[in-house]
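hiii so um. not sure if this is the right channel but i have a protein structure encoded as tokens and i wanna go backwards to a sequence. like what aa goes where. can anyone help
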């Protein structure tokens, strides 16, 4: 049996679709499969994928290309001794930012990842909604080091229309490897990380459907185009899955 989940984001201007074989049944023409216990590595991989998916959905739902991608650094003498202290530094910072947003009559939305590198340096990647004067607010609120601010759209390293690059970048962890020039995987450059979001960003529940068969190619809904299409193998079930993003034609920016 094939299942489909449909996520309508940004009031339906962006639709993400997941299609996958139900692991309880198996692919068409094959007998029902015996349930297998996933390995620790498979569970870790699934958790990382789910974290990136939820992040991507929040980025699409609550942020746009003109909002801000920020990196907060620590000078050597301001580096926190551990993750608990780093979280406290961020809490003090974001409390000041929220206060200034509220004073301007605006609501603050944020997503952040605190990262400690393998060489001991700390930094924080942050996505925040842009308001008038938000750059100055952020600069004034961070006393521990340098602040690098730019619009999401202006950073080719993290920008694409369905926010996949940014979601993957800001959910990196000590389990994240990188691709070398020869195609092999290098070790993670992060020794520990902490991902979190503001609590005022609920996500819509997906619409679920059951399909008779697996179609060879996805088809865009009328009035939309397919911006991104990805297919792979679920590391737990061993069956194919597909994800594609449809964007409304002539949508509002």
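sure thing!! here u go:
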């Amino acid at each position: 049996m094939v299942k489909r989940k449909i996520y309508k984001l940004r009031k339906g201007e962006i639709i993400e679709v997941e299609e996958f074989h139900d692991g309880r049944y198996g692919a068409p023409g094959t007998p029902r499969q015996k349930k297998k216990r996933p390995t620790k590595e498979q569970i870790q991989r699934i958790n990382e994928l789910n974290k990136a998916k939820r992040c991507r959905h929040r980025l699409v739902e609550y942020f746009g290309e003109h909002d801000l991608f920020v990196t907060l650094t620590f000078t050597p003498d301001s580096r926190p001794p551990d993750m608990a202290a780093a979280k406290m530094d961020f809490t003090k910072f974001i409390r000041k930012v929220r206060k200034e947003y509220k004073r301007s009559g605006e609501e603050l939305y944020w997503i952040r990842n605190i990262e400690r590198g393998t060489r001991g340096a700390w930094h924080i990647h942050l996505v925040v909604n842009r308001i008038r004067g938000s750059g100055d607010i952020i600069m004034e609120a961070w006393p521990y080091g340098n602040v690098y601010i730019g619009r999401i759209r202006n950073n080719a390293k993290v920008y694409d229309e369905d926010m996949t690059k940014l979601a993957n970048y800001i959910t990196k962890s000590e389990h994240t490897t990188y691709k070398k020039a020869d195609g092999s995987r290098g070790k993670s450059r992060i020794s520990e990380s902490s991902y979190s979001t503001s609590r005022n960003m609920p996500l819509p529940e997906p619409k679920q459907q059951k399909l008779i068969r697996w179609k060879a190619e996805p088809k865009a809904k009328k009035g939309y185009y397919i911006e991104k299409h990805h297919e792979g193998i679920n590391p737990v079930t061993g069956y194919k899955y597909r994800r594609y993003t449809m964007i409304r034609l002539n949508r509002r920016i």
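oh and The radius of gyration is 20 Å.
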